[in-house]
């Protein structure tokens, strides 16, 4: 009797003609987060400069930009300190 979630599939021997595994590309996470922070800052300036974007029913829009910037700054510190490095994960 076999478990229904794990079918009985025999292990295949390694194929000598199979291509080698492709190494993942290095991703500059700090640069990506910095660009996101800049975008939130520009969005905040635009919402504060254009009165129609922060008056009436849209009075919460600048606070959304502030929240995005603050959360991005927390993420930047997290990655900068090395806590976001997957190779150090246990």
Number of contiguous helices: 2
| Count of extended strands | 0
* Alpha-beta classification: mainly alpha
Largest sheet: none
Rounded to an integer in angstroms, the radius of gyration calculated over CA atoms is 24 Å
Low-confidence stretches: none
Structure summarized in a few sentences:
This protein is mostly helical and 90 residues long. It has helices at 29-49, 61-80. The chain is elongated.
Give me the secondary-structure topology.
Elements (H helix, E strand, L loop, with lengths): L28 H21 L11 H20 L10
Description:
- The radius of gyration is 24 Å and the shape is elongated.
- The two termini are 35 Å apart.
- It has helices spanning 29-49, 61-80.
- The protein is mainly α and 90 residues long.
- Helix 1 packs antiparallel against helix 2.
- The chain contains 2 helices and no strands.
- The model has no long low-confidence stretch (mean pLDDT 83).
Question: Which short descriptors sum up this protein?
Answer:
mainly alpha, 90 residues
């Amino acid at each position: 009797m076999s478990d229904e979630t794990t079918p009985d599939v025999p292990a295949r021997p390694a194929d000598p003609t199979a291509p080698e595994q492709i190494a993942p590309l290095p991703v500059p996470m700090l640069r990506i987060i910095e660009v996101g922070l800049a975008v939130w800052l520009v969005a905040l300036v635009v919402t504060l400069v254009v009165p129609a974007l922060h008056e009436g029913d849209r009075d919460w829009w600048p606070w959304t930009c502030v929240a995005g910037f603050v959360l991005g700054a927390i993420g930047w510190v997290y990655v900068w300190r090395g806590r976001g490095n997957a190779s150090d994960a246990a």
